[in-house]
Amino acid sequence: MAGNTEENTAGSGAGNEAFLERLSSRLSHAQLALDEATRSSYSIDQGPIVDRHLPLAVVWAESVENVQHVVRSCAAYGIPIVARGAGTGVSGGAHASKGCIVLSLERMNRILDLNPDDETAVVEPGVINAELNAAAAEHGLMYAPDPASFKISTIGGNVATNAGGLRCAKYGVTRDSVLALDVVMADGSLLHTGHQTFKGVAGYDLTALLVGSEGTLGIVVGVTVRLKYLPHEVHTVAAFYPDFRSAAAGVLAVGKARVQPAIMELLDNGTLKQLDEMNGSELQRRGRSLLLVQTDGFGAAAEAEVVRRVLAAGGAVVTTEASEEAEQLVELRRSSRGAEVDDEFRVGEDIAVPRSRLVDFVAELEAMASRYRVGLKVVAHAGDGNLHPTFWMDRVDEQTDAAALARLNAALDESIRVGLDMGGTITGEHGVGQYKLRWLGLEQPEPVRELQRRIKNLFDPAGILNPGKAI
Amino acid sequence: MAGNTEENTAGSGAGNEAFLERLSSRLSHAQLALDEATRSSYSIDQGPIVDRHLPLAVVWAESVENVQHVVRSCAAYGIPIVARGAGTGVSGGAHASKGCIVLSLERMNRILDLNPDDETAVVEPGVINAELNAAAAEHGLMYAPDPASFKISTIGGNVATNAGGLRCAKYGVTRDSVLALDVVMADGSLLHTGHQTFKGVAGYDLTALLVGSEGTLGIVVGVTVRLKYLPHEVHTVAAFYPDFRSAAAGVLAVGKARVQPAIMELLDNGTLKQLDEMNGSELQRRGRSLLLVQTDGFGAAAEAEVVRRVLAAGGAVVTTEASEEAEQLVELRRSSRGAEVDDEFRVGEDIAVPRSRLVDFVAELEAMASRYRVGLKVVAHAGDGNLHPTFWMDRVDEQTDAAALARLNAALDESIRVGLDMGGTITGEHGVGQYKLRWLGLEQPEPVRELQRRIKNLFDPAGILNPGKAI
Questions:
Q1: Shared domain check, B170 and B130
Q2: Cα distance between residue B305 and residue B52, in whole Å
Q3: DSSP state letters, B194-236
Q4: Position A455 in a domain
Q5: DSSP codes of every residue in B19-52
Q6: pLDDT of residue A339
Q7: A399: CB partners within 8 A, 6+ apart
Q8: Phi and psi (nearest 5°) for A407?
Q9: Are strands B101-104 and B81-84 parallel, antiparallel or unpaired?
Q10: Cα-flanking dihedrals φ and ψ of residue A402, to 5°?
Q11: Each residue of A401-418: pLDDT tens digit?
């Protein structure tokens, strides 16, 4: 826990008292918490903390009407609202804003409809990604977006960040699976956007505008998603390389063979080391970089065969047909974030670069880590060119730490600049949240940012929806 | 040609003269046409005409600076601008608005970049869809969205309507392939939205908001697209059925087998009859409905085998492995619009319904055609639930025609209402344009429409960008 901690006493001031009275008027006791422990645990997500605030209260909505009541109460008193799913975001999009209430949607967790013939589902925002997938799997279907947090993150949170995951290169990101949204607007009204059909182009694409808006334009209370088919077959190839450079070249080689894997994950030596430490495995002995490729569908075996051939030709030691071990490695990769929670001393990034720049970018990252004397590990959703470098420093004492922190931040800033110079983006799938705001201006020029501020102002003129985030 | 034709004399009035002087000041002679024949031929696209206007002038932009100059000139004089690609739209999105100029982007037709390693291309808006595909094919790549007009329609026009096509169910619509846009805004400024990477979630998704906005929010002058892999193998299955109902059931059967075809087209008897007349084929003798299924990729053969099995089990007469004939049928289907251009006596619709309602909806359509004594044929991108029913009447004499036209419009209106009642949309891929505005209020309630008007007003406060369209 770090950053500037501010204490708000719940209910302090006459205005807050009147507000809390109104807020609680249509909620049960179990839906409202004012105690400091709860407020504290709901004050942050898993992102680094820049500016910590305690919310005035935590509210658990159980219905659309609850959300409307909360929004109307907040609108009447000018109280900011930070909507929150499972709090698994890593950019601070769900960090409490100053003087806000935190509105948890985790109890709105019903799958309202799942229609296997239409291949669609309608869910409340608090439904866990993995639970929707389990329900869909009974019909041979899946909800494709699979952020690494899929076992605990909510669809509403996925929508807020336009979450990605491992199999985006083939199956798309959250936006590509969302057909329609029910949204409580800043004035408490309920809006329905989109369509129940796979295709629909009537009017502007408000649904796509809302996906990824991190709770700043409205509060998503219902999501209609398209489901896809559970793959007929899955084959997994693990390719160990003597260095990261040749592993990244393997990514391009698979592309050149015109095979579209479902998953293509690239792990550097730092990540292998961490996995070995966490799991007692001996991955580092087998190579200094690992490329995991999963093909699926009716052509999975044939595709895996091509993948094996081109990767072996590029110098990889490739696992054989029995891909059970490779599948275990994918599971290890899925959980490679492990128990670590980012803070200001350990920051995971989310840069995406054009695929051809993967090799150059990682070489630059390694040079930076060495120059600034900070730790570095990199995993990448390589099929998308989406990298998650983590820079860190070990804490020693106050004076040493201050200097190291300056170096860490210099490395972070430089990595962003270099990524942008290569045609990249500061965030491929995590969102800007609170933490990445400092870099947004490097990517988007003022007119683009101003247009977004004006859209925000149109949706939320009083600025009560998750202020200080996303744009 | 029909509708209310209004004559604007080019250059009439002192204001128009001054405007045209300014407009022409930075354009070559070959970039500006004021003659009536040209103005007339650029005054409409292929959509039905509700309200026909002649533009003041037709301008061909050859550069971004040209577009900026045109927009600034129009902004200064409050002259509406209708941007236009190849004019192949079928909703009247490129019909001239009253007192407008038509800005053709067909000469901005360069592929500026095509990067096979990044699997992206940057194109000017006037590039023909098929030309981009031909360039991509040299590298084993394709631009996935394939509207039936792909041989003549432009990428800019595809972006304006968020065009679909035959292979959307597997490969997505235009929005899913567009990564970034260069857009000239209503004040003449140039804005760059989006990212060069496959994934990117920094800020609001302005790119998705602009895709499908039919030239009402800005004028697209550059498009960065993601390319996909040309399929390793393609297999095509043609299945003839005794009636449409069992053919539509075949669509669901393929879904239940969890096979995702690239193409799944459904043709009714009226369409088979038309194809026979156009091509001298004898399709009607083989069945009263045809389902065409194309599988692609490494698993294409195995998938086609499953498709054949489930369709045969559903009562279809299915073509054998040699799918050459079936491929020819897909080509026939692609050109099934033929030479016919819609007008008020022959209207093609673009309704999409949830897939499970395909059968019911077509049964309703047939009942309507019979009740209102109008012609009907139906083709459907069945994988998407996207139907293109065409209702028509034969013209006899003025009095008879007036009565028939009333019946035709009653059938059209009823088909829309029934489609919406089934959870459908008035337009799956063609756009609202000018023609479908009369139905938009049936699909979208006033608050949703008002929000779009406010977004329009934010982007284009003077209302000069394609007024009277889309929203």
A1: yes
A2: 51
A3: E-SSS---SS--HHHHHTTSTTSS-EEEEEEEE-EEPPS-EEE
A4: no
A5: HHHHHHTTS-GGGEE-SHHHHHHTS--SSPPSEE
A6: 54
A7: none
A8: -65, -40
A9: parallel
A10: -60, -45
A11: 999 999 999 999 999 999
β-partners of residue A182 are A192, A222
- Are A128 and A214 in the same domain? yes
CB contact under 8 A, A298 and B203: no
Cα separation, A310 vs A313, whole angstroms: 5
Per this entry, what is the length of chain B?
Answer: 471
Residues A75 and A34 in one domain: yes
Closest C-alpha to B171, from A43, A172, A243, A319: A172
pLDDT of the residue at B260: 96
Domain end call among A229, A263, A296: A229
Q: Which of B205, B230, B424 sits opposite A258 (nearest CB)?
A: B230
In which domain, by residue range, is B438 found?
A: 346-443
Two tokens, residue A101 = 């209430």
d(CA A38, nearest CA chain B) in Å: 30
- Give yes or no: residues B258 and B199 share one domain: no
Between B324 and A320, the more confident residue is B324
The shortest CB-CB distance from A205 to any of B175, B355, B423 is to B175
Cα separation, B209 vs A208, whole angstroms: 7
Answer whether B384 sits within 8 Å of A429, measured CB to CB. Answer: no
Cα dihedral B245, B248, B254, B256 in deg (nearest 10): -80
pLDDT higher than 70, residue A132: yes
> Does residue A253 belong to any structural domain of this protein?
yes
Q: pLDDT above 90 covers what percent of chain B?
A: 86
Contact A448 B173 (CB under 8 A): no
Kindly state whether residues B92 and B21 are assigned to the same domain: yes
Tokens of A321: 């047909």
Distance of alpha carbon B247 from alpha carbon B311, whole angstroms: 8
Decide if pLDDT at B160 tops 60: yes
